[in-house]
Write a structure and sequence with these properties.
331 residues, alpha/beta, 14 helices, flat
Length: 331
């Protein structure tokens, strides 16, 4: 009852506030998000739709008790009447998009016209969008030499994981997820021992672990073939392809355990390459020392630059979010 009352009060408050403002003033739409990191991402989504008539204010769901997270956003603002035209919720899709309404939370995310989700698992998956990772390396090392093919690696990484990912979605849809949790999937999706000069070894390692786990699951669920094939067809229709599985796995795991370690190794080589160029250049020692100092002072932190990465704006999944906003705005 308290949540329902709060939802009605908040929605009506913003509508009333907009009604009282000058007709020449811009219309304010409040967008509630899960965490501080989400504020910047959703700002990149919503900025395109601001004009002389409307603007968005992206904020956390509560300034009173500092609660954060998806459940906080949904519990505070979806338990009663739906969000209003002046108040929207912007959340990570997690598995809620792919399980297609099998749970109450999934239905809340998919059915409300005022809730927008990422389609990919989370904002971290967008930040790790493979076609943009070379640019992240350039921003970190100031070296534009393409020594690693991120697109191809993550296509192969995704292809190795896809058969097991279908199992993961299937068990979350039918309630058997305690027997194969997201954490279990993440352990298998850890490339481990990645080598820039021999990346195929890490792919082979993932394939081996996937094969072992699928054999185990087939023994546990011997009659699951038809359900598995139906799930595979369904998630492909939702946009998951064997080459893009990495976008739909748990975002924090992808960011921290897969992409960041790979970027670190690639950037270390690029940094060393640039330092060698300076060291072996035909120049006075003092000039070399000054140049090296200038270069090293210009280097950036990998995770910071990855979080600021906006190369995902060219992705199909990002465009789907924007299409949803257009429908909501009636543009």
């Amino acid at each position: 009852m308290a949540n329902r009352l709060k939802d009605n009060i908040n929605s009506r408050y913003f509508e009333a506030a907009n009604a009282l403002t000058s007709k020449k003033a811009r219309h304010r739409i409040v967008a509630y998000v899960e965490s501080y990191d989400d504020i910047y991402f959703w700002r990149t989504v919503l900025s395109e739709f601001e004009n002389d008539k409307r603007y968005f204010e992206v904020m956390l769901p509560s300034k009173v008790n500092l609660t954060r997270g998806k459940k906080s956003v949904l519990m505070n603002f979806l338990e009663g009447e739906p969000l209003g035209k002046d108040m929207i919720a912007c959340v990570d899709a997690d598995y809620d998009y792919l399980i297609q309404g099998r749970t109450h939370q999934s239905r809340s995310v998919l059915d409300s016209p005022y809730v927008f989700h990422t389609y990919v698992y989370a904002i971290e998956n967008f930040q790790c969008y493979a076609p943009s990772l070379h640019n992240v390396c350039v921003s970190v090392t100031l070296n534009d030499h393409r020594i690693f093919d991120f697109r191809e690696y993550f296509a192969q990484f995704s292809e190795a994981l896809f058969p097991l990912f279908v199992w993961s979605i299937m068990v979350y849809r039918n309630g058997n997820y305690p027997k194969f949790s997201i954490s279990d999937f993440n352990r298998i999706a850890d490339p481990g021992g990645f080598n820039v000069m021999n990346p195929s070894a890490s792919i082979s390692n993932v394939k081996r672990k996937v094969h072992t786990k699928i054999n185990e699951l087939q023994r546990q669920f011997p009659d699951a073939k038809d359900e598995y094939l139906a799930t595979k067809d369904d998630i492909r229709a939702l946009g998951v392809t064997p080459q893009t599985t990495y976008l739909y796995m748990q975002g924090h795991h992808l960011f921290d355990t897969v992409v960041s370690p790979i970027l670190t190794k690639v950037c270390n080589l690029l940094r060393q390459e640039r330092q060698n160029e300076i060291f072996y250049a035909t120049a006075h020692k003092t000039q070399k020392r000054n140049e090296m100092s200038c270069y090293e002072n210009s280097l950036q932190d990998i995770k910071v630059m990855l979080k600021k990465n906006t190369g995902y704006i060219s992705s199909e999944q990002f465009r789907r979010i924007q299409d949803d906003i257009r429908v909501y705005l009636g543009t």
